[in-house]
Amino acid sequence: MAVALLLGVGLLGVSFGPIHLHFDQIVKTLVGAPGGLKGQDRTLLLDLRLPRVILAALVGGALATSGAVYQTVFRNPLADPYLLGVAAGAGLGATLAFTTTGGNVYGLLPIFSFVGGILAVLTSFFISGKFFAEPNTLLLSGIAVGSFATAIQTYLQQRHSDALRPVYSWILGELTAANWRVVGWSSIYILSSIAILISISKQLDGLMLSDEEAYSLGINPHRLRIIAVVAATLATATAVSASGLIGFVGIVVPHLVRGLTRRVTNRSLATIAFAGAAFLVLADLGARTLLSPAELPIGVITAFVGAPFFLFVLRNRRMVR
Predict the structure, then answer these.
(1) Are 235 and 213 contacting, i.e. CB atoms less than 8 angstroms apart?
(2) Domains along the chain?
(3) Count of Cβ atoms closer than 10 Å to residue 151 Cβ
C-alpha cells in the first residue's frame, strides 16, 4: 500500500509544475518505449524533476524513519530527528560554507552541513560523559550543543549580513539544487542507515522497557541504543545536508502510520519509510505549484501541516494522562 502510494505521488511529482507533462509520455520515456518525451520536455523530466522527486523521497524516508526510531530510543512520542544538535550543527556548517567560500557554496554546502551535524552529535555524546549514556542525559546534551551551535551561527550571520538570505533559504528547506550527483551520494548513506534500522527493528521494542528488563530478554540496551542513534543520525545528517532543514516529517508520518495500521511503530519501519517518502514528495509538489511560477520553501509546507498535528498529538497525550 505504501509503495503504491509512493509510486502514485511520484508520478504526480514529475508530471505537474509550471510545465505539465502527460502521464503516458512520462511512463513511455522511463521505460524506453516509443512515443516518449522529446527535446526540452525530456530534459525537464530526466535532469530536473526526476532527481528532485527521488531526492525528496530519500529525504522524507530518512526523516520519517529516524523520527520513529528516536521516539523509541528516547521513549518520547514527540521526539524529533533533529535531536542531539544535528540540525543546529548542520545549520552552523551551512553558515560557515556561505560565509567562508565567497558565495561559491553549492559543491561544498553538503559537505559542510554533513560534517557539522555529525560533529554536533559526537559532541553531545562527549558531553554526556560516555557513549552508553541514558536517553535523558543524551537529550539534554543535545539541547545544550544545539543552543551553542545556534548562537555561533547567529553571530556569523550578523557578521556577514550578505549571507543572511541564502542561509535562511537553506534553513527553510529546499530541493532546487537536486541533481543526480546529490541523489547518488545521499542515497548511499540514507538507504544504508534505513536498512540498518529495519534490521534491528524487532529488538528496538526492548528499548521501551527498563534496561534491566531489556537485559532479561537478551537485549543489550546500551549497544542497541548506540546503533539506533548513530544510524538515525547519519540518515538525518545526510538528509539535512542534501535539502536543508525540513521539520515535522519525523513526527507526523510515524504517528499517522501507527494510527492507520494499529501496529507498534518499530514493526512498521519499512512502511514508515515509504510513507515518509510519499509525504515529502507531495509536500514538494505543493511547494512548486501553490504559487507557481514562484516556489515556496518546502519547510513552510511541512510546518503548515506538522505544527497543528504536533499540537493535536500533544493535546491527546495530556488528555490520556
Answers:
(1) no
(2) 2-320 (1.10.3470.10)
(3) 12
Cα gap 276→13, rounded to integer Å: 15
Q: Is 209 exposed, middle or buried (0-12, 13-18, 19+ CB in 10 A)?
A: middle
With a CB cutoff of 8 Å and minimum separation 6, the contacts of 294 are: none
**Angle CA 233–194–65, to nearest 5:** 70
Checking if the pLDDT of 320 tops 60, the result is no
CB 97 within 8 A of CB 317: no
Between CA 62 and CA 91 the distance in angstroms is 18
- For 312, residues 6+ apart whose C-beta sits below 8 A from its C-beta are none
Predicted model pTM? 0.89
The full DSSP string for 122-152 is HHHHHHTTSTT--HHHHHHHHHHHHHHHHHH
pLDDT at 8 over 80: yes
C-alpha cell at 267: 514493526
